Amino acid sequence: MTGRPRAGQASAPPSRAPRTIRYTEGPHLLVRGDCIRALRRMAADSVDVVVTSPPYNIGLKYRTYRDRLDENGYLDWMVEVAREVRRVMRPDGSFFLNVAGSSAQPWIPFELMVRLRELFVLQNHISWVKSISVGAETHGHFKPVNSPRYVNRNHEHLFHLTLAGDVTLSRLDIGVPYMDKSNIARRGHRQDRRCRGDTWFIPYETVQGRAQKFHHPGTFPVMLPQMCIRLHGKRAPVVLDPFMGTGTTLVAAVREGGQGIGIDLDTIYVNVARQRVREAMRIEADGATGAGDQEI
């Protein structure tokens, strides 16, 4: 890709959008093509959960997309994508949007949320913590910031958007055990679980090189979309990722017994995603992990 993409066509060259190709892996659908074009071909009210991490517009080096629009162009494009996401979501659906921002552009996530107020209700704002220091100990991993002006960025935003702000969640399905077990009986609880809250510590898996990261600059741990799917609580959900990348959200959908739909512009990413989905399906079929049974 050579020219700078226009708003609304940021995942395609300005002159011509790529031909859309659809692949199926079992019940899962993977689409190679422009996300807006592919979303417009989807049926309305057909998706239960959307989990995605769009290009952040901070200059990451994707293979077929230049992650650098002017700020208004990027926000306009994201609103256009979000409008199509809203159309395909069911009335009780959940949209989990992971946006990081950067030290140089700290307002982008919040400006995007202001733009999306016309389409969604911000039902929950979750902090995905990748590294944390407690006392003298540090846990997790982070990408260092090479500037004396900023501290290292150890978290990203996870915005939970719904159509009306009234979606009932399965909070205990991603809950954590009580530290003080006396709270279980004293507070009338039936199980040793409490709500995890809006701070999720999910460290990256340590990788030795780009090959282990599937040559994609913006991958997230599979546990992140798994927790989103499980929190939404619907059994056998239809799960969409309009910026699929190498298919992490679809792997999570397989593990949680859902039907995944993923869209990406890059042929190599789509091929990697297909391989990962096939492998996840094989593991599930072999009974290594039952759908929805993996401990979180």
Outline the secondary-structure elements.
Elements: E1 21-25, E2 28-32, H1 35-40, E3 47-52, H2 71-88, E4 89-99, H3 108-115, E5 121-129, E6 131-134, E7 137-140, E8 155-162, H4 182-186, E9 199-201, H5 223-232, E10 238-241, H6 248-255, E11 259-264, H7 267-285
Parallel strand pairs: 2-11, 3-4, 3-10, 5-9, 10-11
Antiparallel strand pairs: 1-2, 4-8, 5-8, 6-7
Helix pairs in contact: 2-3, 5-6, 6-7
Key terms for this structure?
296 residues; Rossmann fold; disordered N terminus; two-stranded antiparallel sheet; alpha/beta; 7 helices; nine-stranded mixed sheet
Task: Describe the structure concisely.
This protein is α/β, with parallel strands linked by helices. It has 7 helices and 11 strands.
CATH architecture: 3-Layer(aba) Sandwich
Question: Level of helix content?
Answer: 25-40%
Return the CATH class.
Alpha Beta
Helical stretch tally: 7
CATH H-level homologous superfamily name: Vaccinia Virus protein VP39
Number of strands: 11
Average pLDDT figure: 84
State the CATH topology: Rossmann fold
Tell me the major beta sheet: 9 strands, mixed
The radius of gyration is: 19 Å
Instruction: Tell me the overall shape.
Output: globular
- Poorly predicted sequence stretches spanning 5 or more consecutive residues: 1-15, 58-63
Spatial arrangement of strands, main beta sheet? 1-2-11-10-3-4-8-5-9
**Which band does the percent of strand residues land in?**
15-25%
Based on secondary structure, the structural category is alpha/beta
The number of domains is 1
Quaternary structure classification? single chain
Q: How far is the N terminus from the C terminus?
A: 40 Å
Family: Belongs to the N(4)/N(6)-methyltransferase family. N(4) subfamily.
GO cellular component, one term: cytoplasm
Catalytic activity: a 2'-deoxyadenosine in DNA + S-adenosyl-L-methionine = an N(6)-methyl-2'-deoxyadenosine in DNA + S-adenosyl-L-homocysteine + H(+); a 2'-deoxycytidine in DNA + S-adenosyl-L-methionine = an N(4)-methyl-2'-deoxycytidine in DNA + S-adenosyl-L-homocysteine + H(+)
GO molecular function, one term: site-specific DNA-methyltransferase (cytosine-N4-specific) activity
